[in-house]
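hey
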């Protein structure tokens, strides 16, 4: 039996077609999906707000790495903080969607989860490079070799 059985499941429930087909979803999976959707929305909105703030208050103009180092402000990378938190919460949301998906659509949900893993890996590596290596170099006024990594490029 592939169904999720909870403490409140009765013998009659075990014989029901919904349980037999695995259509019932545990309350913990529903809660996890709900909160990951909320956090994904919050972090997405946080990125949008901080990006708009950065683009209006301190727009980045590409005039070379040395100019970027000279003009660097913390506001230029502020939008990366909600972005780095978005990646894991988005993965949890995709996992919850996979659990919730009916059996005839699980392949689509699993495909989305696979692409989400690629996104989360790429984004996490990129944002960590930006927040650690690039930020520290720009704050120190160093620009040699950063051309490829700067967001303004």
């Amino acid at each position: 039996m592939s169904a999720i059985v909870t403490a409140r499941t009765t013998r009659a429930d075990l014989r029901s077609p919904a349980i037999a087909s695995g259509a019932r979803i545990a309350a913990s999976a529903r809660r996890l999906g709900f909160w990951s959707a909320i956090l994904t929305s919050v972090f997405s909105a946080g990125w949008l707000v901080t990006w708009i703030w950065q683009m209006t208050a301190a727009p980045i103009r590409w005039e070379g790495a040395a100019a970027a180092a000279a003009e660097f402000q913390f506001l230029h990378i502020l939008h990366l903080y909600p972005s780095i938190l978005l990646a894991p919460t988005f993965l949890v949301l995709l996992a919850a969607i996979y659990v919730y998906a009916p059996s005839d659509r699980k392949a689509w949900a699993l495909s989305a989860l696979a692409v989400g893993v690629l996104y989360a890996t790429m984004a996490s590596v990129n944002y960590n490079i930006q927040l650690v290596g690039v930020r520290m170099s720009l704050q120190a006024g160093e620009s040699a070799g950063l051309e490829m990594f700067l967001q303004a490029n």
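The first helix runs from residue 11 to 15. Confidence is low (pLDDT under 50) at residues 16-21.
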